[in-house]
Amino acid sequence: MHQEARLDHPRPFPSAPARPGDLVVARPEGLYCPPGDFYIDPWRPVQRAVITHAHSDHARFGHAHYLCSEPGRGVLLARLPGIHLDTLPYGERITHHGVTLSLHPAGHVLGSSQVRLEYGGQVWVASGDYKLEADGTCDPFEPVPCDTFITESTFGLPIYRWPSQPTLMAEIFHWWQANAKAGRASIVYAYSFGKAQRILHGLLHHAGVAGLPGPVIVHGALSTLNAAYADAGVALPPMALASELPPRSPLLRRALVVAPPSAQRSPWLRRFGDASDAFASGWMQLRGTRRRRGVDRGFALSDHADWPGLLQAISATGAGRIIVTHGNVPVMVRYLNERGWQAQAFETEYGDDDEAVRVAAQAEAVSAAGNEAAP
Ligand SMILES: [Zn+2]
Ligand SMILES: [Zn+2]
User: Fold this and answer.
1) 132 C-alpha to center of ligand 2: Å?
2) Which keywords does this Swiss-Prot/TrEMBL entry list (predicted)?
3) Ligand nearest to the backbone CA of 351
4) Spatial CB neighbours of 317, under 8 Å, sequence gap ≥ 6
5) Distance (Å, rounded) from C-alpha 223 to C-alpha 241?
6) Which long-range contacts (CB under 8 A, 24 or more apart) does 42-45 make?
7) What are phi and psi of 189, to 5 degrees?
């Protein structure tokens, strides 16, 4: 407990001082482009904000003007209704105060972008959050050559290596199928933006509508985002709200129930009776996390790059200078510096969608990493 409390508020890894000509610097409001006079995913209110994606730690209320990718419009407006928003198709270049800006797919969630900036003969790319493996719910990650790459490092420890998307979906499907045969509902907790839709789309892709073992029931908290995904053309299975089925319907016992983590132990779950439950998160790769979470199963499903993915993405940019924003920052900075990159950190206020789970997992991850030789 003591250790978890400490890891909940890690000592911030200080930002390195800016160099003359830097295209992005750390300011109290967020990451700032001095020649362009705009911010990327700022955490305090600013005039101009370029938003990499609609997760709540990257996209906040209070800015005067927002810019995001065209495919990100629906989900960003679902989360921040009423904002003054402009959008840009992926790959299309605009010039603002002499800075050429374009957005490129990050493969993280619907509409997620890397921000490419070009000015004075330099190219910088700010990744936001990203994932390398395509999952069918958003445009796949695209490596963008640059001189300086600003990267996340949420799962920046060598122990994080994800199973492939088909393997994960087969695992979730077989768990659901076995529960349905035994007359038990399957409740999977997944963050309501990104992971939930990935499970829904992935299972449909795995089995087809006719192959699903029972009905799919979604928690009301998912409705708006599911609609935004469907509007964007992402295939989702037929879904019902729990209230749309009669209370003692036998179908409830064959159902897959997708709910946000906040629904765990809520009275809403009682209608499903003796169900099997699972949690979907990258942190589930550590067995202790599942145990602490008190669920029957853990699926290591993440919308972030794993350790090999982070290193592959960093190498693919060809950048010599790397700036790490959030996650396991000191580990990644040290690793890269030892291997010939110029690596440093930006102190940011980005967190993780599964913050509570992360806190519990970090203690275990850090001690496990201590026992493992770097690859
Ligand atoms: Zn994110
Ligand atoms: Zn993030």
Assistant:
1) 15
2) Exonuclease, Hydrolase, Ligase, Nuclease
3) 2
4) 125, 143, 144, 145, 146, 149
5) 9
6) 43/348, 43/349, 43/350
7) -90, 125
Do the beta carbons of residue 187 and residue 276 sit within 8 Å? yes
Residue showing tokens 């790319």: 125
The enclosing H or E element of 195 equals helix 195-207
Chain centre distance of CA 366 = 21
| Chain centroid to CA 244 | 30
**Ligand 2 center to residue 279 CA distance, Å?**
20
Structure tokens at 303: 């919308």
Alpha carbon of 352 to ligand 1 centroid (Å): 7
Tell me the residue type at 212. L
Which residue has tokens 């202790």?
288
Task: Please state, in angstroms and rounded to a whole number, the distance separating the CA atoms of residues 279 and 162.
Answer: 15
Residues 6+ apart with CB under 8 A from 270: none
Q: Which ligand is nearest to the CA of 55?
A: 1
Name the least confident of 2-11, 171-180, 191-200, 236-245: 2-11
Residue ranges of domains in the chain, CATH in brackets: 25-160+303-373 (3.60.15.10), 165-299 (3.40.50)
Task: Extract the tokens encoding 338.
Answer: 């030892």
Q: What is the pLDDT of residues 226-277, one digit of tens each?
A: 999 999 999 999 999 999 999 889 999 999 999 999 999 899 998 899 999 9
Q: Are 136 and 35 in contact (CB under 8 A)?
A: no
Residue 351 has what pLDDT? 80
